[in-house]
Design goal:
globular; about 0% strand; two-stranded antiparallel ribbon; 25 helices; mainly alpha; about 525 residues; single chain
């Protein structure tokens, strides 16, 4: 029966990760669209020096790519209040509607202004998804494989980017509006699947209990575990949720201001860590390939840049599977450190090859492609999924929604900054820096910063429950966390729990969530 419960929880939680396809596809499709001849003719301006007779200015290219990230920033911030007021499940469904509005505006846009507004609404939908999906997954998934399941969200993002590259490659040679309208309108299918799929999924038991809907919470947990309501597994999980909720209400620290308070539980450190972690993820430079990959490969003299974009996305999608397998085996810190190290080396080599070898050199171009693929694979297996896993783990229950929201907003703020600045850094024109491939010297340097940040700021949380992560923060530093983590696990295996240690949280949990709380009694009371 336990295996059945696990399979049910995995299936339901894994489907929620489908929201990552909205994120990945929308991010990936714009890279090809802005290079399509009909899109340039439709939204560009006459330019006799261009082979198509039209061109898009650096400012317009920067705006149309980066404006999505501006929408996602505000969407991510809106995710926390939406999730707390409407619920995780309903909020995800409403997100699909917002996203679909943006897609419809882009598909039928008669001018550049309408297309830009559509990008904003689509961005708001993607931002909401980036907050709500990891939150829903964390609250529904079995504890033992939470890391792998949350990593599935990044895998869905990679799949979305791959699908975008494939569709772009299939429509790029069309001579009418369908060249770019088809890739954009396909996104309505992803929103449709997620919306109607969520109709069949339960609300998270945690949110239902916070709303004092204990009967509904018991039924939701029963569905998630495929067990009767009176099964000990269901009862124990619900007791744990009630105990944590009672503790939160006693502490009464759940505002945005509380996220930045320096307490014994180090909530401010956790919040700043989540915000900085998502910022460093963007500073790896991965979205340079996502947004401007086709443009970069074209300028580097590579034949069929659309096909190379498909190849890099295949690599990213495949390597994310390795990350899902590895995150609960090798640990968070090693994967982040070694992943950043590999990316750092690859990016410096890309910059060196690009500067020293002419574009006519076939061997040099192949080396460039290989290095970019290794770089993409390193990100997809480490910083891609693990950053979201750590963000979902490090926050205490009372501020988790707000902490994840702030972290996701940080991700999108830096996403916007990089998307906006990159054309000015790379392009060669009046007012542009004209760095070209030299921009990889910048990304290599930021990856070196990722190594230092991980070493000093990210604790090792592999194999720990959320409650044990609280202990880790209270009694160790990120640098010493690996040693203390082993001590926590050893004490847990020997039967020394929080109550035996004298921790206040453990005492509250036993007092508030002990055997006195019975699921069946709750159901009877609510029915009556």
């Amino acid at each position: 029966m336990k295996n059945k419960a696990g399979i049910s929880g995995i299936a339901m939680t894994a489907f929620a990760a489908f929201g990552g396809i909205l994120f990945g596809y929308d991010t990936g499709t714009i890279a090809g669209i802005i290079q399509m001849n009909d899109w340039i003719k439709t939204f560009g301006r006459p330019d006799s020096s261009s082979s198509t007779g039209f061109s898009v200015s650096t400012s317009r290219e920067s705006l149309v790519v980066s404006i999505l990230s501006a929408g996602t920033f505000f969407g991510a911030l809106a995710g926390a209040p939406a999730a707390d007021i409407l619920g995780r499940r309903v909020s995800i469904m409403l997100t699909c509607l917002v996203f679909s509005l943006g897609v419809a505006l882009q598909t039928g846009a008669p001018n550049f202004a309408a297309f830009t507004v559509g990008r904003v609404f689509a961005g708001m939908g993607v931002g909401l998804v980036s907050t709500l999906i990891p939150m829903y997954q964390s609250e529904c998934s079995p504890r033992s494989i939470r890391g792998a399941l949350v990593s599935c969200y990044q895998w869905a993002i990679s799949i979305g980017m791959l699908l975008a590259a494939v569709v772009n490659n299939a429509t790029k040679d069309r001579t009418n509006h369908s060249a770019w309208q088809i890739p954009i309108s396909v996104q309505l299918v992803w929103a449709f699947v997620l919306f109607f799929g969520m109709l069949w999924l339960p609300e998270t038991p945690r949110w239902l209990i916070k709303r004092d809907r204990r009967e509904d919470a018991a039924k939701a947990m029963s569905r998630l575990r495929s067990l009767p309501i009176d099964d000990p597994v269901v009862q124990n999980e619900l007791r744990d949720i009630v105990a944590a909720l009672e503790e939160e209400r006693e502490i009464n620290q759940s505002s945005y201001a509380d996220c930045f308070r320096f307490t014994r539980n180090k909530i401010a450190l956790r919040t700043l860590t989540g915000i900085a972690l998502q910022a460093w993820q963007q500073l790896t430079g991965i979205n340079f390939i996502s947004y401007y990959g086709v443009t970069f490969f074209t300028s580097a003299g590579i034949q069929n840049p659309f096909l190379i974009s498909v190849i890099t996305n295949v690599v990213g999608t495949s390597m994310t599977v390795f990350g899902i397998w590895a995150v609960d085996r090798f640990g968070r810190r090693p994967m982040l450190i070694w992943g950043a190290a590999v990316m750092c080396v690859c990016e410096f080599l890309v910059a060196i090859v690009g500067v020293t070898i002419p574009t006519s050199n076939l061997g040099g171009q192949r080396a460039l492609i290989a290095l970019v693929c290794i770089y993409v694979g390193a990100f997809a297996s480490t910083w891609g999924p693990v950053a979201w896993v750590v963000t979902g783990e490090i926050f205490p229950l009372n501020v988790r929604a707000k902490g994840i929201s702030l972290s996701a907003a940080s991700n999108w703020l830096w996403n916007w900054a990089i998307a906006f600045a990159t054309p000015y850094l790379v392009n060669k024109g009046a007012g542009d820096a004209g760095l070209g491939v030299k921009v990889f010297f910048i990304w290599g340097s930021t990856c070196a910063g990722c190594i230092l940040f991980t070493y000093f700021c990210i604790p090792e949380t592999k194999g720990l429950s959320l409650e044990q992560i609280d202990l880790l923060y209270q009694h160790s530093t990120p640098v010493t966390s690996t040693t203390y983590r082993k001590q926590i696990i050893a004490e847990a295996e020997s039967g020394v729990g929080r109550a035996e240690r004298g921790d206040a949280v453990g005492a509250v949990g036993l007092e508030k969530g002990g055997a006195d709380w019975d699921v069946q009694e709750v159901v009877k009371e609510d029915v009556a």
